[in-house]
Amino acid sequence: MAEERAKLLPFYLVVDVSASMAGANIAAVNEIAPRMIDTLAQNPILTDKIRFALLDFSDEAQVRVPLCDLLTQPSLPRLETRAGTSFAAPLRLLRTEIATNVRQLKADNYSVHRPAVFFLTDGLPTDEWHDEFRNLTAYDPATRSGFPTYPNIIPFGVADADPHTLTELIHPKSGNKRMKMFMMDEGNDPSQAIRAMAEVMISSVLASGMSLAEGGSGLLLPADDLVPKGIHGYTADDDDFV
């Protein structure tokens, strides 16, 4: 009998580092990965189930932490702001990274669950990004055309992020595995909203990893009543925004 392969769930944190994120906002962003490490250290069973990568973007996108077991990462980069807010660049880079990472994990004899992307931004894109989004998310199982390892995408918006734009980034938008976005409540402080959103990300990693350890599968997001104050979650068919 073939040996059962260990299961892994890759998470990609994709962060807007455009100039408007300077100051308290980028400081809050730089707290996310260390907080994630603390959570994993307190729950070592998760290290066999979770992999984590960090990408940032402005007018270009960069891999700052390649997909890894965070507890083995010797150091973390300090993100700094740059010019521009290209959505196309990180979506393009995500497709390349996910394809490469999943192929390598399978070669290493892992069973890979559908990747999850946390996409955090504080503003509007400065480019046309829809083609890159389709390249990342479109897949037809009947014809096997498109990108079979498309990720689940959960957008997070603070400050001047547009809820209508972020709704377009949710994937999938429908079905029993539909995702949602998280938006800062009007009048809230963006840096505090980022910290609240980090709690959502960390609780999702924790719940998803624990589920895998207990034989479950896939990405879990916190229930609405467990979302921290100052932010709210919305599905693609919510009509709260005009």
Structural overview:
It is a single chain. This protein has 242 residues and is an alpha/beta fold. It has one domain (6-234): Rossmann fold, CATH 3.40.50. 31% of the residues lie in helices and 22% in strands. It has helices at residues 24-29, 32-42, 88-107, 130-137, 163-169, 190-213, and strands at 6-16, 50-57, 61-68, 110-112, 116-121, 139-140, 145-146, 152-157, 181-184, 231-234. The strands form 2 sheets. Strands 1, 2, 3, 4, 5, 8, 9 and 10 form an 8-stranded mixed beta sheet that branches. It has a two-stranded antiparallel ribbon with strand order 6-7. Helix 2 runs parallel beside helix 6 and helix 3 runs parallel beside helix 4. The longest helix has 24 residues, at 190-213. It is globular and about 55 Å long.
